[in-house]
User: Fold these one by one.
Assistant:
Number 1:
Amino acid sequence: MGEKCTMVWNIKMARKGNSEVYCTGPILHQVQEAKLFRDDKYFVDMKLKAAPDIVLSAFHNLSNESPNRIVSPAKLHEFLSVYFEKAGTEFESWTPRDWHDKPKFLEKVADQELRNWAEKIHNLWKSLGRKICVGVKDHPELYSQIYTPHPVIVPGGRFRELYYWDSYWVVNGLLLSEMTDTAYGMIQNFLYLVNRYGFMPNGGRIYYERRSQPPFLTLMVESYYRATKDKEFLRAALPALEREYQFWMQNRSMVVKVNGAEHVLNRYHVQVDLPRPESYTDDLELAAGLTDDLKEQLWMDLKAGAESGWDFSSRWYIDADGHNNGTLRETRTSQILPADLNALLCLNEKTLASLHRTMGNSDSAALYDQAAARRLEAMESVLWDAERGAWFDFNLVTHSNHFEFYPSNLAPVWAQCYSRPEMGEKAVQYLKKSGALQFPNGVPTSLRESGQQWDYPNAWPPLQHMLIEAGLWLDQRRGAAALGPVWGETHFRKQTCIFWPPAASGHLNPSHAPMNQTWQQSLYREVNGLWQYLDSLQ
């Protein structure tokens, strides 16, 4: 193993040099071990002042002059001041040109308090836009930042780059704010990166190049097409969408045998057996005392957990007995077939079929319809539990399901990826009986208090959005309230106002607010995707 986090294919050879600075190697190890910065991510976001080979050679010489080749913290600081610039220098100031202060959706929000809140959120576009400077394009070897041709919307705070699945909600928020050009640029960046790498990386840094995130690009393209009806855009985008889909099927799929039948489903799986550069010391300390094999397995599964977007959660724990128990040290993400990932891929397959039909590609549409049908059968054979009335992650160690509550257990309802109407009805009853609806400020990410951020008591807005959309779909399908007041307009408006004040920490607390705002992160994905419901619920 020991693979670097930079892919060999479709990347300039210059990347090999800076991967030995930002992804692995003695500089990364000693700087992070010395804990020169409060956040490990800060160092790997710093710009080089000289070519990587010069910096590596200088550090080699410095190490040779140091006792046991360990450079003192004072000397490390001095070295960094000579060879690195501070983090964040790769951007030019930029305000989206298509921003204006009175998008139409605001006029439809009758509640004054909610409208004031929405206006404040709308104003954030001006502060979250970034344009990557031309130096990143001309001298990529000096940066961990990956160049993209269009400006980006970033989370803010420590997150100085674009992220993948977050941007699905960003794009929908931009479209609602009538910022079509900015949304177009965001999507073009993703298509550019898929064409470069064969898939969309986790985010816009070279240390993210070996892992992805939940594949929402097809849905972003669909959202843009619905808003613009731009067939030339769609025609140009489809090859990259198909390429990304093939990546997931070739690199993140598994054959599983249940009741004598074989099925193909997908998982998160990152074959890089080193600590995450941006969380280097956390990963080293977590693996302390393990054998080398177990360390490497843990580091791969932590990266797979990051690929899931749920980093981290008890959802990914598998203890020595194969059960869904343990601590972060028992993270085994790659040994789990997730219900929500497979629901999302089912929705991608159905969407690709629809987009191909729009373009008159009936043969391609039929192939994706068939893929969706195969996945639906696999999900109902492997993940669906008729007695409990939901879809549950599948443990590849024990060949059994995990029955803990997570909102992801209802993702197939959001994706409309189930074969019989009664399955949706059973899922509603499952949610009602789970106890997850008893909290005044949202559905928690789990009912297990593990200390991880994707567990109780936190409630993450992407999951709230999926549950709300699932409820709206069931309402439409049967013409009655699927979840009663849970999905009602009054409840939605009330909870939206309660939710968002603590959202600067990146997540919500369903049992009380405000939370400790440890991340100092600007409001981001937590606001954008739900805006469409402010409009649709008028």
Number 2:
Amino acid sequence: MLRSLLSLLLLLFIYPSQSSPQHDYRLIYAVDLAGVSKPPILLPLTPSSSSQSHRRLRLRRRHLLHGSASNSNSSSARMPLYDDLLSRGYYTTRLFIGTPAQEFALIVDTGSTVTYVPCDSCQSCGMHQDPRFKPEKSSTYKAVKCNNNCRCDEKQHNCVYDRRYAEQSSSSGVLGDDIVSFGSASELKPQHAVFGCENSESGDLFTQRADGIIGLGRGPLSIMDQLVNKGAIDNSFSLCYGGMDLGGGAMILGTHELPGDMVFAPSDSSRSQYYNINLKEIYVAGKLLNLKPSVFDGNHGTVLDSGTTYAYLPKEAYSAFKSAILESVRPLKKTSGPDPNYQDICLGGAGRDVSQLSRTFPQVEMVFGNGQKLSLSPENYLFRHTTVPGAYCLGIFQNGNDQTTLLGGIIVRNTLVTYDRKNERVGFWKTNCSDLWKNLSAKLSPSPSPSVYHGKNTSSGLTPAHSPFSGIAVKDILSGDFRVGVITFEMTLLTDGSSLKLHMTELGAFIANGLDINFSQVRMLNFTSEGNHYHIRWDIYPVDSASYITSTQAKSIILQLTGHHLKLPGKFGSYEIVEWNVERQSTRKPQFLAVFIGSFAILAIILSLIGIWFLRRHQKQALHSYEPVDSVVAEQELQPLRTQLS
């Protein structure tokens, strides 16, 4: 039920004797990480699938309540983003830890300064997307031993961390050092980094599907600070979240070529560990909201946080914004929200096509202290109603009694956001983030893959925007209402050398289980192999008792495939979905039936006409077999009369 943004303090313990807390947002442990400098890392972002409750999404505002403890010409790591705001409430990327590498799906969080994953020894961790981290399986793992720069465990052996958030979730564990790599498309070589190995988690951290968090905030334990201090990347990173329908996107760690028309806002790092911007004004439908600029400067000011789903304004600003939006959309009908526990502002009758929402909903503009403006389209402040087609709800809420203005992921949908930490500014550039991933992949030609062994579920991934179709647009797959006849996908497998020829049936069973469908629906079309590389083509058909796959089922299957959520045993090695295709329900049977009935009807008519013609001809012939009374006829011999004698 928590709606308000609780103010958070991060206690940074540099030395055990320090007692005054620092405003270090989410840092729990500080460690001196010195080094030299190098290039940028591009990581793809992906939104998660829809098991998250609406309540949990609403509370996904990762603010810590209590805590403890540049050179250019750098490389780049290219990693896709998975998941989306509506279905999961966050975006994730894939990180590989250890030797051999163990793969994890981590929430991209600009508000966190620690990266952590569940430890294999954790007794109170939830069930997540990937297996837990096994330190004993990594030849390069080392626990960070107790020292003057960290908080130590009770036995004074290892450094530990402890994080508690306003949404009543928490994470604690030990700190370890290991090789971290960023996927096969990364130019950046694997790097040593300090991360948290969880021994306990609670709240949303316990129930979420994602394995953990990748911390991109300001602080010594942030993955950004560690890579920058090593000289591995420049002091900048960028995020690009996909739109309302597609999700996905990209993340770049390091610098990249900036668009000439990118809008910048100053960001003062001395104020706090937050990525704050100097917001001064908001326009709705071209009209300035009657607010003092100071309303956006309360408490922590205006903060960008990628780990937060929606946006939250101070009471006065929220009231003015809500009134202006409702004034602009009077023709629309108010409808109840998807969650009865909240009084959401929802409006129906706007249609399902997101690209046409700007015809109904107004444009919003945010003006920064330097006079530059960021334009927001409707998808930057609305979320789609989950049960009422054509209805949308306001994704900006009141921040309780907190005067902080918090801008979450919804504000920057289809926007390239560059966190230029070196020049203390944040840049915004409106674009199609699904296309951006493709464009950046072309611009940053990757060097040979880093020396990392990918885990058993490794995949570079395909976002839905890059997948081929036969007549169904991507946006229709994710939002339309239609019937699917068959889903086809191709996958590649890289095994450890064992043959898969005898395990195809078993593989099909694991695929069916992972997609939550019947085994009878999965059929292998063909496969080819070369050494330990396999290329397999599969079809997914409707269940035997149905004639089609519903759009909801199809969406779930596609998100599972593109999100690479399939769990395959180690003997199947690593996999990658390289292509998928959706075909509408076949209409050939109904057409054939119609043609058959039509043909039968025509044949019946023809036969009837022929019958009538023969009947009339016969009648005519019968009529002509009788001659007139006065006509002359040939005389005929009479047959002898036979009498029967009694």
